[in-house]
TrEMBL record:
Keywords: Hydrolase. This is SGNH/GDSL hydrolase family protein. GO terms for molecular function: hydrolase activity. Pfam families: Lipase_GDSL_2. It comes from Luteipulveratus flavus. Residues 36-265 form the SGNH hydrolase-type esterase domain. InterPro entries: SEST-like, SGNH_hydro, SGNH_hydro_sf.
Amino acid sequence: MTGGRARAAVLGVVVLTLPLVACGPQPSGRYEEYAALGDSYTAAPWVPVTEAASGCLRSSGGYPVQLAARLHVGVLRNVACAGARTANGTTPQGHNEPQLDAVSRSTDLVTVSLGANDERVFGRLSATCAQAAADRSGPDCRQRLSPGGVDQIRRATERTRGRLAGLLRQVRARAPHARVVAVGYPALVRPGDHCPDRLPWRPEDYAYVASSIGALNAAVRGAAADAGVAYLDVAAASAGHGICDAQPWVNGVHGDRAAAAPLHPFGREQTAIADLLVRMLT
């Protein structure tokens, strides 16, 4: 998933423990080296200070930074990058090195949240639903993405499972003593939702988007099982925090653009993920 314009100062990839305010129970253990791999749902553009130099739009309030502070990590290597695909685990993204390079034998904690950009799943989904809303006399989002009756988004997510499982296995091989967690994506909407002031899609397309994000999370969960690593179910935790809800975890197309990029997580979602990971890891 990709972000928009960057805001404020540049942050380094290697970040020392930051003096963030911690909420919830404090961990008793300590991790020395933490590598955070992911796309823009980990980079969290505009939450709140976002670096621009790398093009990755990593923010100062993303869950890797918060988690590193909560766990008192010695070294954080946050290589999450807007637009990253699973393939960017092993291949460069622009002038950014492969994300897997952040993982070494001394790494003892790794989080991975990738897959939404594989085969442009998220980009095609959001763009096609916007097109369907603009042309209400034509096919809906599902129909446009299902030529010949074959759902291209569902097929793409099925292929993502194998690619992500392969990357997770490589993470385990590089860091055999590390705790590895595959982090899923939040649910954006529920079937029956409709909030055109935030998300100007056809009412029937909300259910299709919910199903598609569910398929993406099923691929991430399956990849984690295939590779023998833990899975963090962010979708389940995000129940009641969809884009149409009172306290959304993800910004709408029309929303508070000073707090998060459109269709990207707010700071409260990143804090919630950090909370969930602290509970899981301790």
